[in-house]
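Input.
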Amino acid sequence: MSIIRNRWVLALAVIAVTLTGGNALGKDRLAFSGGPEGGTFQYFSNGIAIRLSKNIPDVEVSNTASAGSLENLRRVNSGEADFGIVYSGDTYLGRVGRLTNDTREYKNVHALAFLYGAPAHLIVKAGSGIEKVADLEGKRIAVGGAGSGAAGAAERYFTSLGLWDKMNVEFLGYSKAASALGDNLIDAFWVFAGFPNSSVIQAAASNKIKILGVVEAGQEAGFFDDYPFYTELTIPAGTYSGVDYDVASFQDSALWVAGEHVKPETVDAALADVYSKEGLAYMVKVKSTAKAMSVEKGLQGIVTPIHAGAETFWKSKGLEVTEAQSAR
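Output.
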């Protein structure tokens, strides 16, 4: 009898493991692809991962570092990651096969929500002689890690201006770039993230910096005509130490995205938790940039299809889903 009983116990255990995808606890283990150290992406992805793991039954979300937007797009599209943060522009260009040097179409990536606007910062040392964007010809500039959304935006912008191939481009993350500027290893660095950004603060604490306006040169080059998902904004005077003037810049929208394979009910529950009153207050504690998050702005800046679970959630909140945003 004991042999028969043991066989039944073993059989039931095998069935349980099969039904739970190999996890005896029955939890869905999801990966959230974030960003580089010191970047806003990483704060957001880690904060959301921790909260969802704590508050959604049977879901455990692990945060993983990445180079940023473009790497996240590819990871989520392939299923290597379930959630990610991707710029709206990269989501759009990737979906239609227009990424720089990459004609693949990333159609498995669906937007969930607007997180914040990410403006361009172009930082140089005050007194360097670099007064305008055109002065960067022949100079050393860090544009973010290879595969990052910052690097992608920089390549689009400087290519439009005819400068990309005339500069010495370094693919450095924000923190390393701030240190390299202080050590005179580079002449400028580019940050594409919500403000105030910790790496720009780091640079301003060690050196007197200047942030160059980037709108006028972009307008003259037709950059905003070619990439209409970028919108103009102002980085206010006093945002960074020593920068006592408004900076004319442009931004992309940082979006929370998920793979089409993620269960709609999981997406619905995740959005309901993070965009609750308590969830939004928690996100502001994680990163002040999250002040831009709200139910009212949930679909702002999204020009590609949203996830089925996101469509259910936002419609329940009274938001209108446009034809471009609807995946159905």
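The radius of gyration is 22 Å.
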